[in-house]
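TL;DR need structure tokens for one chain.
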Amino acid sequence: MECKVEGCHTEARAGHRGAAKGLCAKHYQRVRRHGDADTVLHSAAETRAKISAANKGRTVSAETRAKISAALRGHKNNLGKTRSAKTRAKISAALKGRTLSAETRAKIGAASKRRTHSAEAIAKISAAHIKRHRDRAGRATSPQCCTDAARRRPI
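>> reply
TL;DR here they are.
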């Protein structure tokens, strides 16, 4: 049996909910949602234009702008997620052998020079480094690591 909506030639399949009313699935859903089989939703472009027109001239308070700014700040896509060893290996393999241009290396160097640590942060970093690279007796695990000369170098 064909859908009873004019211009629709889709079959109203037996066993489908709308079949008893002589409607195809699409028109049955429209009747359920909107009460009318002929209702068609507005296009996305038309809807965006209406929203845009409604918001024209509206001012946003400084407090709201600050909240929006704080919410959008930073990279939050993978926050709190740990990559598996397999994924880390794939990323490592993809980046191996990659050469950076002189301009890029200069930019990275300039950004690193601007980076400074507080005295407290330097103490924490140093303690973590020593803990990581010394054995239980307090001896350095490698000759290049944790020597007095190495610790005096600027970070």
